[in-house]
Amino acid sequence: MRGGFFDGHAERYDRARPGYPEALVDDVLAFAGLAPGERALEIGCGTGQATEAFAARGLPMLCLEPGPRLAARARTRLAPHTAVEVAEATFEDWPLEAEGFGLVLAARSLHWVAPRARYRKTARALRPGGVLAAFGSAVVEHDLPRDVLPRPPAPPRSEEPFDGRHFGETVRRVYAWTRAYNADADADLLATRSRYRDVPPAELERVRETIEARGGTVLVPFETRLRMARRLP
Prior knowledge:
Layout: H1 4-8, H2 10-16, H3 22-32, E1 40-43, H4 49-55, E2 61-64, H5 68-78, E3 84-87, E4 101-107, H6 115-118, H7 120-125, E5 126-139, E6 171-182, H8 183-191, H9 201-213, E7 217-230
Parallel strand pairs: 1-2, 1-4, 2-3, 4-5
Antiparallel strand pairs: 5-7, 6-7
Helix pairs in contact: 2-5, 2-8, 8-9
């Protein structure tokens, strides 16, 4: 799944990566219709940005994260939520709990799962009628001039259709929102995105200096895309 790039930036990742809209959490839980106490499985929880929003609703969760630094930060963030467990494992290597979950969450992680396990193993982890919810956020248009950014924001990732052998019709939602970043946080945000992994530090410093010169804050608009589907009987 995740490469060492993300784990090597765990502190920055935890500091700068945004969470997710509350409306997304509402929509996922409404669609899933979980029974009281029914568990969710999260594939690749990172440092827990998405996990925290669901855990705050009282959802029992098992969260898989192969990066040791990312997993350690997730455990710290999620410590108040005693019904949440973070296991250091890839989804592919995780010992399957067949039909053990009513919901599988994948926040910017499903594409990292090997094709052989991506849908077949996910479906086997869900009870019949259980829901797979895959989502992720992308920067739509940065508030900084194009000649300051090391690279323009990446276009939205093309969406691979869910495997129709295991999942029914896909439901889609899109959420538009913004977050204010100070100069250090915005530079951290860029540094944690794989698109900018080989950008020289001097170019990120230029971003920081530009934000400071403009008052110290920049608004970053995000678009979050959600796809959900039920496991077939």
